[in-house]
Amino acid sequence: MKKIFSQIDDLxxxxxxxxxxxxxxxxxxxxxxxxxxxxxxxxxxxxAGGKPTVAYILDNDQRRPMSLVEFSxxxxxxxxxxxxIKIPDVAGxxxxxxxxxxxxxxxxxxxxxxxxxxxxxxxxEQWNGLIEIRSETMHGxxxxxxxxxxxxxxxxxxxxxxxxxxPDIACxxxxxxxxxxxxxxxxxxxxxxxxxxxxxTRWMCMILARYxxxxxxxxxxxxxxxxxxxxxxxxxxxxxxxxxxxxxxxFAYLSDAEHAYRALFMSIGAQMNVVLGSxxxxxxxxxxxxxxxxxxxxSLQSLRxxxxxxxx
Length: 312
Prior knowledge:
By secondary structure, the chain is α+β, with helices and mostly antiparallel strands. The protein has 10 helices and 13 strands.
């Protein structure tokens, strides 16, 4: 039984775990290997950019971390019991967040009124949490941050492939949604990475918007192009688009995300210093930094990703 992104076809390769791992490593792809064994259980190994990261035992709605050595030792009933798929980076990071989180409760959606009331409640509570939706026609995850649905942290598998579009509630009438609501583990690295990502993205977008106010769109686009050029050799799935920072990368480790964001902020600070001078650059960085949500600002501060580090 396929448990993760069940609508996505297996890759047409030799169905052994060793072959699957070599394949994902070779193409440097984010993906997963799912070993099906015993009744109702699976073992899943996640890859980020072709590198194995974390593995879990999935038993109904329960999941337990396991070492990579343990995953390799899981017996196969047959070659057909191993599944390997390529997945987008966003799918990898949300699957990892789900595996590390606890299911708080589940409910079924068949009409828009039930779903609408639930979304309104999350919004009023300023809820940070993850939902998983399963139906006969799709499976995926969506993150709510401070009560708001996050388009950048949404992924669903369908018969047509992966989509970042949230499914149409009308489809729930024909194929009811089972929704798993996760409480996020504040003490875990995967949650801290999410906080850092949202804080870094929010701060960068504010900086870009203020910079455009000061120098105009033409110079903003010039800076965007330079930042995107510097990102390219690192193969980070991050793009600067006018006043937006689009981060779709799967950083499996907090330290990797910290390194990427530090490099971006150092670069933008240096370029703004040249155009605006250090005093005005420092002012923009400081003023925008204070506008970030307190939890996100604290995350940046804990890693010394602060205005004083990025301006002369």
